[in-house]
Specification:
Layout lengths: L1 H23 L1 E3 L11 E11 L4 E4 L5 H15 L4 E2 L6 E6 L10 E5 L3 E6 L2 H14 L13 E11 L5 E7 L7 H13 L4 E5 L1 E2 L2 E2 L8 H4 L3 E3 L5 E3 L4 H13 L3 E8 L4 H6 L28 H14 L7 E5 L6 H5 L1 H9 L5 H17 L4 E5 L12 E4 L4 H8 L4 E3 L2 H4 L21 H5 L16 E8 L7 H8 L2 H10 L5 H17 L16 E4 L3 E3 L8 E5 L10 E2 L4 E3 L3 E8 L9 E7 L15 E7 L14 E6 L21 E11 L3 E7 L3 E4 L2 E5 L9 E7 L2 E11 L1 E2 L2 E2 L8 E4 L6 E2 L5 E2 L1
Parallel strand pairs: 1-8, 3-4, 3-5, 5-7, 9-10, 9-20, 10-15, 15-16, 16-17, 17-18, 18-19, 19-20, 21-27
Antiparallel strand pairs: 2-8, 6-7, 6-8, 11-12, 13-14, 22-25, 23-24, 23-26, 26-27, 28-29, 28-30, 30-35, 30-40, 31-34, 31-38, 32-33, 32-35, 36-37, 38-39
GO cellular component, one term: membrane
Catalytic activity: Hydrolysis of terminal non-reducing N-acetyl-D-hexosamine residues in N-acetyl-beta-D-hexosaminides
EC number: 3.2.1.52
C-alpha cells in the first residue's frame, strides 16, 4: 500500500511540474495589436491555444500557396510547425465565401475556443486575414525553446476591408540599384501590412535598369554611369529576374507597376542610342541628380518605334493593367530648336511644346491600349491636356490630383510634402543624410488622400495613395529600410483603416518592432533633437534641451562610453559649466537603442578683434582652376589672384537647381579679408561652403561631404574686425553640383532663432 501511495505521489508531483512548465511556456496575448488597425473588432468569451498541435484546413486549392506561405511565416517568426489539412478540435480553417458582404480584399476572422476561422470573398482576403492573425502573436521573450510555445489568443471577431484600393510604395532603382533578394525581402514586409502596389521606377537619366532585347545597348551602356569619383556604378535586371520578382509579388498579392519614364529623364537611353535625341551626338549617362535638358525627340519616327518596342517587351514581363509612363520634368528647350519637332507641331496643329508632349503621351497610351494596359502619368502631363482615359499620379502637391479627379480622371495621391520617404523624418542636424524636406511619421499617418476641394460625386476617382522613395542619397540597403520603416507602415494604416488614432498606432507599433528585429529589418528610431551643431561652445554655462518626434525614452553618458538601454535617463535640459563629451540616444520599449549622437561641450572665451584698419570693402579672391575634391590636396601654388569682389555671391555664378552646369568652371576659390562683428557675443555661423576660418579658428568644415545642407559652427567674438577666410570648391560630389549653391555665409547671436546673411557692408580687406 505504501508503494502505491509513493507511486501516485510521484505521479502527482510529475504532473504538477509538467503543468507548471507548460504554463510557463504559454504566451498570453492580452491586446490585439494589428497594423493596419482592423475596422471592426469584437471581443468574445474564451481563448484559442495556438501551438505545434494546431492544424490548418482548406478545401479550395487556390488557398494552398497562401496556407504554405503562412506556415512558413509562423515557423520563421515563432518556431511553430502546424499540420496541413488535419481535422482537429484545434484548427485554423480558411475558406472562400462569395456570400460575404465584403469587397475583394476584405476578410472575416473569428477566433473561438477550438477554431480560428478565416473567410473572405477572394484568396487575397484570406491572405490578409492570415497576416492579421500573424501580427496578433507577439515575439517570445521567455527564453524557452520555440517548439514549446503555446499562444493563448483571446476569442475575437474581426470584420475588415480597406478604405482605399491603391496602397502603394514606389522604389527608384535608377539612382541606386537594389538586388532582387533585397526587393523580395521588402515585398514580404510590405505584404504583412497589406500594401498592394509596388511601383518600380526602372528608367531614368542616371541608369536604365530593365533588359530590352531589341535594344541591348540600353543595359550594356545605359545601365552604367561614371560617378564623380571616377568609379563605374551600374546594375540591371534581366527579363527573367523581373518575371521572378513580379511572380513573387503576385504570390503576396502585390501588383507590380513598372515605370518607363518618357519623354524626359531619358539620358541613359540617349547615351545608348543618341539617334533618339533631337541632336544626335555623344551622350553619357547622367552623373548629376536633377533635371536633364536632353530628352527624346518628339519629331522622329524612331522615337515612337523605340517606345512601342519597349512596351511590347514590357508586356511580356508585367501583367498588371497599369503602367506608369512618367511625363514629369520635361524641359522642351531642345524641341523649340528642333525642326522635326516643330514640323510635328505644325502637322497636328499643336499650339506649343506642352501640347507636343501631350501628343507624345497620347501616342504612348495607344501603344498601351494595344496590350490592354492603362496609363498613369505624373501630374505635369496635365499641362498640355490629357486623354479621357489617362490616370494621374499627383506628386507636386495635391492640386494636379484635385484638378484631374474633378475632371473625371482616376488619381493616385503622392504629394512630396507628405509621402516622399527620401525626405528627412527628423532634424537634419542629427539624422543621416537625406534629400531634404520634413516628413515625420505623424505627418504620413495623418495624410488624407481626399482633399476637401474634390467634389463629393468625384471622390471615388481617388484610388488611394502611395509613398515614394527616390534614392539619390540612399547607397546602402540598410539606409533604404531606415527611410521606409516605420513610415510605410503608417501609410498602410492611413489608407486601410477608416478610423485613425495616432497615439494608439504608436502603442501597436512598439509591439511590432521586435518582429522587425527578428526579420533583420532596419528602421528609424526617433533621435534626440535640439542642438544645431555637434560642437557646442559656451562662455560661462550652457543649457541644452532635447526632444524627440515621438514619445521615446532618451539615455545618455558623459564619460565617453556609448549609451545603452540601462544608461542614465534624460529627464530635462542639461546644464554644463565644464568641457564635456555628451553621447545621447533614444531607446525603445523593448530595449533597442537608436543611432548615438555625440556632442562636444567646450568652454571658450571671446576672441580679440584685430587692431588693423581695413583698406576698403570687399574680399580678395584667388582661383585655382581644375577638379578638386579634397581641400587638403590642393597645391597652394595653383591659386592666382582674381581681384576683389564686393559680395560673397560674386564668387561664383549660381545655376538653377537640378539643371545642367558649366563643368569648364570647376575650380577652387579662396576669399580672404575681414568680417566686422557688431558686438561682443557668442555667434553661430552657417554655410554650405567647404571651409570657413574666422581668425585662426576653423569654424565650419564641410570638406569631403555632400554640400547640400548647411553646416554650423560656434565661435565667441569680440566686437570689431576679425580675419575671414572662405574656401569654396566648385565640383560635383555624389551627384550634387556646388554650382547649385549660392556662395554665402549666415550668422546669428547664440540667443537668436533667425539667421542673418553676412552682407557686403560687413566685409573688408
Amino acid at each position: 500500500m505504501k508503494k502505491y501511495s509513493l507511486f501516485f505521489l510521484s505521479l502527482l508531483l510529475l504532473l504538477i511540474v509538467f503543468s507548471c512548465t507548460e504554463d510557463r511556456n504559454i504566451v498570453v496575448v492580452d491586446d490585439i495589436n494589428i497594423i493596419p488597425q482592423p475596422n471592426q473588432i469584437t471581443p468574445k468569451e474564451g481563448h484559442f491555444f495556438l501551438s505545434n498541435q494546431t492544424s490548418y484546413n482548406f478545401e479550395d486549392l487556390k488557398l494552398a500557396p497562401i496556407a504554405d506561405h503562412f506556415k512558413q511565416q509562423l515557423q520563421e517568426l515563432h518556431g511553430l510547425s502546424i499540420g496541413a489539412n488535419d481535422a482537429s478540435d484545434n484548427m485554423i480553417e480558411m475558406k472562400i465565401d462569395s456570400s460575404l458582404s465584403l469587397g475583394p480584399e476584405g476578410y472575416h476572422l473569428e477566433i473561438s475556443k477550438n477554431k480560428i476561422g478565416i473567410a473572405a470573398p477572394s484568396p487575397r482576403g484570406v491572405f490578409y486575414g492570415l497576416q492579421s492573425l500573424l501580427q496578433m502573436l507577439p515575439m517570445s521573450t521567455g527564453g524557452f525553446p520555440n517548439e514549446a510555445i503555446n499562444y493563448q489568443i483571446p476569442a475575437t471577431e474581426i470584420i475588415d476591408e480597406p478604405a482605399f484600393k491603391w496602397r502603394g510604395l514606389m522604389l527608384d532603382v535608377s539612382r541606386h540599384f537594389y538586388s532582387v533578394a533585397f526587393i523580395k525581402k521588402h515585398l514580404d514586409i510590405l505584404s504583412m501590412f497589406k500594401i498592394n502596389k509596388f511601383h518600380w521606377h526602372l528608367t531614368d537619366d542616371q541608369g536604365w535598369r530593365m533588359e530590352i532585347k531589341a535594344y541591348p545597348k540600353l543595359t550594356k551602356i545605359g545601365s552604367k554611369r561614371k560617378d564623380d569619383d571616377g568609379s563605374i556604378y551600374g546594375g540591371y535586371y534581366t527579363q527573367e529576374e523581373i518575371k521572378d520578382v513580379v511572380n513573387y509579388a503576385r504570390e503576396r498579392f502585390i501588383d507590380v507597376v513598372p515605370e518607363f519614364d518618357i519623354p524626359g529623364h531619358m539620358m541613359a537611353a540617349l547615351a545608348a542610342y543618341p539617334n533618339l535625341a533631337c541632336t544626335p551626338k555623344h551622350y553619357e549617362v547622367r552623373t548629376l541628380w536633377g533635371v536633364e535638358t536632353n530628352i527624346l525627340c518628339a519629331g522622329k519616327e524612331d522615337t515612337y518605334t523605340f517606345m512601342s518596342t519597349v512596351i511590347d517587351e514590357m508586356a511580356t514581363m508585367f501583367p498588371y493593367e497599369y503602367y506608369h509612363m512618367g511625363g514629369d520634368e520635361t524641359p522642351t528647350d531642345k524641341w523649340k530648336l528642333c525642326s522635326l519637332c516643330q514640323q510635328k507641331m505644325k502637322q497636328y496643329g499643336l499650339a506649343n511644346e506642352h501640347e507636343l508632349k501631350s501628343y507624345v503621351m497620347a501616342e504612348v497610351e495607344k501603344m498601351l491600349h494595344a496590350h490592354d494596359k492603362k496609363m498613369i502619368g505624373w501630374d505635369e502631363i496635365l499641362e498640355g491636356g490629357i486623354t479621357a482615359t489617362t490616370n494621374i499620379m499627383s506628386w507636386q502637391g495635391e492640386e494636379g490630383g484635385i484638378k484631374a479627379a474633378n475632371a473625371g480622371h482616376d488619381v493616385i495621391m503622392t504629394p512630396s510634402s507628405y509621402l516622399y520617404l527620401n525626405f528627412y523624418q527628423g532634424d537634419l542636424n542629427v539624422e543621416p543624410m537625406a534629400f531634404g524636406g520634413d516628413v515625420p511619421l505623424k505627418k504620413v499617418y495623418q495624410y488624407d488622400p481626399i482633399p476637401h476641394e474634390i467634389e463629393a460625386s468625384r471622390q471615388h476617382h481617388i484610388l488611394g495613395a502611395q509613398a515614394n522613395v527616390w534614392t539619390e542619397y540612399v547607397e546602402q540597403d540598410s539606409m533604404l529600410a531606415y527611410l521606409m520603416y516605420p513610415r510605410a507602415i503608417a501609410l498602410s494604416e492611413s489608407l486601410w483603416s477608416r478610423e485613425h488614432d495616432y497615439e494608439d498606432f504608436l502603442k501597436r507599433l512598439n509591439q511590432l518592432y521586435p518582429k522587425l528585429d527578428a526579420l533583420e529589418v532596419n528602421y528609424h528610431i526617433p533621435l534626440p533633437e535640439g542642438p544645431e551643431t555637434r560642437t557646442l561652445k559656451f562662455l560661462d554655462s550652457i543649457t541644452i534641451p532635447f526632444h524627440t518626434t515621438q514619445p521615446v525614452k532618451m539615455v545618455y553618458t558623459t564619460d565617453g562610453t556609448s549609451p545603452t538601454m540601462d544608461s542614465q535617463v534624460y529627464e530635462g535640459p542639461f546644464n554644463f559649466k565644464e568641457n564635456t563629451t555628451l553621447k545621447i540616444a533614444s531607446v525603445l520599449d523593448h530595449g533597442k537603442v537608436s543611432l548615438v549622437n555625440e556632442f562636444k561641450i567646450v568652454k571658450t572665451k571671446l576672441k580679440a578683434s584685430l587692431d588693423t584698419i581695413p583698406a576698403g570693402q570687399g574680399l580678395e579672391m584667388s582661383i585655382a582652376k581644375g577638379i578638386f575634391n579634397d581641400p587638403d590636396q590642393i597645391n597652394p601654388e595653383l591659386f592666382k589672384s582674381a581681384g576683389v569682389i564686393d559680395s560673397l555671391a560674386a564668387a561664383n555664378k549660381t545655376y538653377y537647381w537640378g539643371h545642367s552646369i558649366d563643368s569648364t568652371q570647376f575650380k577652387a576659390v579662396i576669399l580672404e579679408g575681414m568680417i566686422e562683428i557688431p558686438e561682443d557675443h557668442l555667434y553661430t555661423f552657417s554655410s554650405l561652403q567647404d571651409r570657413i576660418w574666422i581668425g585662426d579658428s576653423l569654424v565650419i568644415d564641410n570638406a569631403n561631404s555632400i554640400r547640400k545642407h548647411p553646416k554650423q559652427g560656434m565661435i565667441a567674438l569680440q566686437k570689431g574686425f576679425h580675419k575671414l577666410q572662405i574656401l569654396y570648391i566648385n565640383n560635383i560630389k555624389k551627384g550634387w553640383a556646388t554650382d547649385w549653391n549660392t556662395v554665402e555665409l549666415q550668422f546669428k547671436k547664440n540667443n537668436d532663432s533667425i539667421y542673418r546673411k553676412v552682407k557686403s557692408n560687413m566685409l573688408y580687406r
